[in-house]
Amino acid sequence: MFETPDSTALAKINATAKAMVAFYVKNSSDFPREVRELDYEERIRRSYPIHPELFDRLYQDWSTLERFQRTRGVLRLMNVIVGQLWRENDTAPLIMPGSIPLRADKVVTELTQYLDDQWKALIDTDVDGPNSAPAQVDNTNQLLGQRLTTQRLARTVFMGATPTLTSAHKGLDKQRIFLGTALPGDVPGNFHSALNHLANTATYFYNSGSLYWYDTQANTTRTARDHAERLHKEDVWAEVVRRLQEHRKTASDGFAGVHVAPDSSADVPDVPEVRLVIVPPAHLHNRKAKADSPAAIWAKDVTEHRGSAARTHRNMVAFLAADDARWAELASAVRDFLAWSYIRDNADKDLNLTAAQRQQAVDRVATHDQAVADRLLQTYHWVLAPTQREATKPLEIEAFKADGTTTDLAARAAAKLRNESLLTLQRSAGLIRHDLSGTLKAAWDREGHISFGQLWNYYTTYPYLARLRDRTVLEDGVQSVPREMFWQQTGFALAVDWDGQNYLGLVLPSDQVSVPQITDALLLVQPERAEAQRERELAEYEATQGEGASQHESDSPAGDDDTSPAPDGTVQSTTATRTDSRSETGGTTPVAKTRFFGSTALHPDFYARDFNKITNEIIQHLAAADGVHLEVRVEITATTPNGFEENKIRTVSENATVLKFDQAGFKTD
């Protein structure tokens, strides 16, 4: 220390200074602003092997003590410290506030001569004794104990904050604590955890906001710790349930209801809408036990029963449970919160606390309140869903881990169920038809139709079907059936009633009419039965009108010659023509038919249905022929004795333009 460094020593000093500042820059948010500047690198070089922060604390804080003689006091103290570190073969690159050997009698004696007598015992129990609170924290936490993190931090707090106790602004700021402790290789993020552990363990350790200090007056930590240990598990459960009540949020993309820790299955309503049940904290989920975990067993009982009766709507419940591996952390945080809340609330009554102790209680309540909120989200992350992969398989409770950035537990659970296709907000007509033709085929085939009410009852009852959030999901799906282009394969017809022979109020998706009102009695009819009835109705209609077949008879047989333009309201289809060929002997050879043409009038009330038939039964076969040139033209004529309204004229004209009609218009007769 007292010799001029040679080139080797200078190189080592420069390397140390650069490494320290580089470390501060890398972790800039954890250290004071000035240490990231080049000037601080020069300060490290000049003060080497002593860290500038130690000199700052000695000259700025310790020198304010009455018996501490500024320069002489610093030299006396540093002489003792350096000698002790040399005897201990300390290998740290710099002498830091956090590396001062406070266990050594000579060092403690030198320091405490400027302090009250009780500080010696305090240092031994709360700062740097072999069985001190910081040593206990490091011994029980491998991550902190590897680098004696808590003990180094405790020394820094003692060295930096103790001289400030009688000042207006006592305590050492957290960034200064980190500066006096951290060396390259440390993880500053671990320092926060170490300080929290120390605050919960030490008897004379205080903090307020970002300031920390030791005081000779015992804090209320021991009182809080004793109170926390006396709490019953039921007290912890009650606080957890109280906080879970804040997560009873319904949402259109989530659950229709949320029930928090019901006492039994009797307290969970048996209703046809999906509800989340948060499992009571007495029943935790064990990942390894799976379906045999207490939470899964409880959830299965609620799924199958409501009290002593069988549950009807078994597909309308899902569950959220706590992880037994994380429960201990949550319970510990809750105990700390309740204990400090007790101290805060009784500060002026039974405990007669000082102002500093009251403030400590207020600060600790806020700290532990946030800790409980965080751990609640980390612990309640198992979504338990009743599932039945096939109708013949037994009911099971499957577990899914629900994480996320939202702080709403119900929203997390809903998102996970949606991602696993176990909560459905939309169900298309095509998927409803898939269920009717698959899992529910026997029920649909029984009479060729099924009522909406019965279908909805199937969805709410059986977990092998989709879990629809509520009745409106199925209603919207049924109402969407007109959008199914090939509804015979992917949809169904609808009817108001069945009289034993005919469907009343029968509506086919191709009818281009509004869907009947959705009621429990509404029937979903198999397409072949609906079309068969519609054919009978058309035949009867045409017979009563004295009309023959709807197809227009042309003068020439279809397929032999061209025809004149189609009459009003017809569809025409033509292909290219080839000339006939004759043999050299004058005889004829079979002529290949190279042209098709046809025209027909569409029924004015069922034009969409008729055109769909023409597409499926005529056009698609022609389009499949090799080398075909297909042309389909549509001619539309409409007349009304009262004339068309202006809005109709405008709409039709605009749509005809958008659809690129060759010609279109309105005229007067």
UniProtKB/TrEMBL annotation:
What this protein is called in its record is DUF499 domain-containing protein
What highest taxon heads this organism's lineage? Bacteria
Organism (species) = Rhodococcus sp. D-6
Show the InterPro entries listed in the entry: DUF499
Compositionally biased intervals (Polar residues) = 570-588
Q: Where is this region: Disordered?
A: 533-592
* One Pfam family, short name: DUF499
